[in-house]
Design goal:
197 residues, alpha/beta, Rossmann fold, 12% strand
Length: 197
């Protein structure tokens, strides 16, 4: 693991979730902050949530439309820096949720087979690439971004029921009495955007 990943707090999480889109400026960072808030509300401890893009440039900011949509829901993307998807991030993640089938293909090619799904497919309990993906709002008007954000909120909530059953609950049950579990505290949820604010 690189020094950069260790310094970012990626090493000690009990559950590591990665959202992936194309440029990491719209859909995946919006999903990331939605998921971070939801994980905190659920009391999931030691959960690390990140995002990346298959064609992202490192260090770019979130799009204006995404920032405005987030602000309208009480969240912020002001500290977001885009991150390209690579083999190290894929290896780090326990679960990778993407916005479209092409992102699944890229993540699988980087070593993510058996742990990568489209977000919509995972939320609907379907196969990894079944159903429709999340439409890219890039270049759209503010309403398009708001609709995308609201769609992501619903998908993340549905996906987290499955995450609870497949990851959080089993890991909680595997720990003995008195041990800290992924469901015991909201304070340990990690998100780059939360740490930057």
């Amino acid at each position: 693991m690189t020094k950069a990943l260790e310094e970012s707090g990626m090493h000690g999480a009990d559950f590591k979730l990665l959202f992936v889109c194309t440029g990491n400026t719209c859909r995946s960072p919006m999903a990331q902050i939605i998921a971070a808030r939801s994980a905190g509300q659920r009391g999931w401890a030691k959960v690390d949530i990140r995002s990346a893009g298959v064609s992202a440039f490192r260090g770019g900011s979130a799009s204006e439309g995404a920032r405005l949509a987030a602000e309208g829901r009480g969240l912020t993307l002001d500290g977001h820096e885009s991150t390209p998807l690579d083999t190290e991030l894929v290896a780090w993640a326990d679960l990778i949720l993407t916005m479209g089938p092409n992102h699944v293909e890229v993540a699988e090619a980087l070593g993510g087979r058996d742990k990568v799904w489209m977000l919509s497919a995972y939320a609907d309990m379907g196969g990894p690439t079944e159903g429709a993906g999340v439409t890219d709002p890039f270049g759209g008007d503010p309403q398009i971004y708001r609709e995308c954000f609201e769609a992501l909120e619903g998908l993340v909530q549905d996906a987290f029921f499955r995450v609870e059953a497949e990851f959080i609950k089993p890991r909680r049950e595997s720990l003995g009495p008195g041990d800290e579990s992924p469901g015991s505290s909201a304070e340990s949820v990690s998100s780059k955007e939360e740490n930057a604010t």
